[in-house]
Write a structure and sequence with these properties.
This protein is an alpha+beta fold. The chain has 3 domains: about 25-190, Sandwich (Jelly Rolls), CATH 2.60.120; about 220-365, Jelly Rolls (Sandwich); about 375-580, Rossmann fold, CATH 3.40.50. It contains 9 helices and 31 strands. A 7-stranded mixed beta sheet has the order 2-5-12-7-8-10-9, with helices on one face. It has a 7-stranded mixed beta sheet with strand order 15-18-25-20-21-23-22, with helices on one face. Strands 1, 3, 4, 6, 11 and 13 form a 6-stranded antiparallel beta sheet that branches. Helix 5 (about 470-485) links the parallel strand 29 and strand 30. Helix 5 crosses helix 6.
Length: about 575
């Protein structure tokens, strides 16, 4: 079996090495017409497809205009029908889109198990196989409904196999869209620069557990099984034991038998279904020695522990007894807490806890090169970084707007003011550790420090600072500005985001004090307080603003609100500085 497995890998390697990159452009709109397009759902009547010159991109694009998702537009066709693409060699779909609200994209594919729609929408979560079994839904997130251009790239084979691992695409035949907006540059390719070079370390479809060992069987009785999952409709690996007292392993430590020794890929993905606490340790060898990248259902990170463990919280939803797909950029997770360290090889996974796991893959897809392009470090309070259940700060969403998301380092700390962020913190989110990370970061492509304080500066007590030019709020902020410049970073002052009160300004003299400092020191300033005040005024009531805020405390955001505010930060950055804007898509 082992020899056969090696032969298969060698054959795949030879096949990949002999493939030539190719692409087929199905629409770039530069011919000035809408040939190949049709309106497949014109109820209600009046939907239109036009070829227009887009002012933002200064190029021709296809504009889809109708009653939002009630109308449908189509390019290509179903297999064996006139106009079908019948593309049997290219399965990486890329397109540019500017959607003005909720949207749905359906990629028409023929598979070994019949017709499928790969169905993408502006939802945060995947729904997997739905309907009559021919729809496979994947959420693209809620951030791209703002009438701004963005690029999307999907590996259709990987998206199919995520939910039908034993199925294969025969041909890609067309694209159907519901929603109003514009699209451009619709391309299929096999370009490995855009696609992922993925390897499955476990899909469970072989029906056995040959790759696994129980590395901790005290107390005795732990088992590893390969089962048919009734909820996932595929084979999965099941662990049963005494909770986290028992441990299970695939791969091994560097230099030992069965270690993956994967030196090419650093993006790890797995599906997990646990109804209890779990611990996942990824075994990596680095330029500074052995490390465990350590993941649990905590809401927050614990960072570097005991010199060898680097902890990231996955959120408590992964212990809820439902299937979740987790994708981690291991290099970015390592460098968040050890910026000067680099992964040499990824060698295996160790798991503690009873539950199920599937589709363990390593890939280079979406691998963010954290040592290229500008770094953005972010400091602030809970409106910027908050890991409480259901809450999120805008700094945690800023990376989703960036060309290289893992170049955003959200170092804000809940409860801090411009004064108290300088105090040491057990969470490792404080000015001392952030400065160390900044000092170790590669700034050759540019580096920024985003600074937003004010909410806790206003409170009576030990976090308080006094507003006004040259008073303590001014001078505390000035320290960050000066020290950031000393480290080769460009400081960016951001006025504190507004609270939840429609039509009210809620931060008194603090925004103006920050503006005075920016003027005195020649610092780029993003007036988020005024921007958010204007945006919140558009809501008809405070109650309507619950779409953005998590609790009725007028301050903290839910994930959707965090993404919205992060979008405003990006918008302000692009209005103020074109070099900074270049870090965003």
């Amino acid at each position: 079996m082992k020899t056969q497995y090696i032969k298969i890998l060698m054959a795949l390697f030879l096949l990949i090495s002999t493939l030539h990159a190719s692409q087929t452009i199905y629409e770039d709109a530069e011919d000035g017409n809408t040939d190949g397009w049709s309106i497949y759902d014109n109820n209600p009547a009046g939907a239109r497809i036009d070829n227009i010159l887009d002012a933002q991109t200064n190029s021709q694009v296809i504009q889809l205009e109708g009653s939002d998702v009630l109308n449908g537009y189509q390019l290509g066709n179903f297999s064996n029908r006139a106009g079908a693409w019948n593309n049997k060699t290219e399965s990486i779909l890329t397109l540019d889109a500017k959607m003005d609200g909720y949207y749905m994209f359906y990629v028409i594919v023929m598979t070994e198990k019949g017709h499928r729609y790969l169905y993408y929408s502006s939802q945060n979560d995947d729904r997997g196989v739905i309907g009559d079994g021919s729809y496979i839904h994947i959420g693209l997130g809620t951030t791209h409904m703002d009438n701004q251009w963005y690029s999307e790239s999907r590996d259709l084979v990987a998206d199919l196999k995520r939910y039908e691992p034993d199925n294969t695409i025969i041909s890609v035949d067309g694209l159907m869209i519901r929603g109003s907006g514009s699209v451009d540059n619709i391309i299929l390719s096999n370009n490995q620069d855009e696609a992922e070079e993925k390897i499955y370390y476990e899909s469970a479809e072989e029906g056995n557990t040959a790759k696994w060992t129980i590395y901790d069987n005290a107390p005795a009785g732990a088992t590893i099984s390969n089962i048919q999952s009734p909820t996932k409709d595929s084979h999965v690996i099941q662990f049963n034991g005494d909770g986290t007292q028992n441990g299970y392993m695939i791969g091994n430590w560097a230099g030992r038998v069965n270690a993956w020794n994967d030196t090419q890929r650093t993006q790890l993905s797995w599906d997990m279904n646990f109804a209890e606490w779990s611990m996942i340790f990824v075994n990596v060898q680095t330029t500074q020695g052995h490390r465990y990248l350590y993941y649990t259902p905590r809401a927050s990170d614990r960072g570097l522990l005991y010199g060898e463990y680097i902890h990231h919280g996955l959120g408590n939803q992964v212990s809820s007894g439902s299937w979740f797909t987790v994708t981690r950029n291991l290099q970015a997770d390592l460098q968040e807490y050890e910026p000067a360290n680099t992964i040499i090889s990824v060698n295996g996974m160790l798991i503690r806890g009873s539950g199920e796991i599937d589709n363990i893959t390593m890939s280079t897809s979406a691998q963010e090169v954290v040592n290229s392009n500008a770094k953005i470090f972010i400091i602030g309070d809970s409106t910027v970084h908050n890991d409480s259940q259901g809450e999120m700060g805008w700094g945690s969403k800023l990376g989703t707007y960036m060309q290289h998301p893992n170049n955003a380092f959200n170092r804000a700390r809940s409860g801090s003011s411009s004064k108290t962020y300088k105090y040491d913190s057990a969470s490792h989110h404080d000015w001392s550790t952030t400065k160390t990370m900044m000092q170790d970061a590669d700034t050759s492509h540019g580096a920024y420090l985003f600074i937003q304080f004010g909410h806790n500066d206003e409170k009576d007590g030990y976090t308080y600072t006094q507003p006004g030019r040259y008073n303590s709020y001014y001078t505390e902020l000035e320290v960050y500005v000066d020290q950031a410049r000393d480290l080769g970073f460009t400081p960016v002052l951001i006025t504190p985001v507004s609270r939840q009160y429609v039509g009210s300004r809620t931060h008194g003299e603090y925004p103006q004090t920050m503006k005075d400092l920016a003027s005195d020191k020649g610092v780029l300033l993003l007036d988020l307080e005024y921007k958010s005040y204007l945006e919140f005024k558009k809501y008809p009531s405070d109650a309507a603003l619950q779409e953005v805020f998590h609790y009725d405390d007028g301050t903290h955001f839910n994930p959707n609100g965090a993404a919205i505010v992060a979008g405003w930060v990006k918008e302000l950055a692009c209005q103020k500085d074109q070099t900074l804007c270049g870090q965003f898509y």
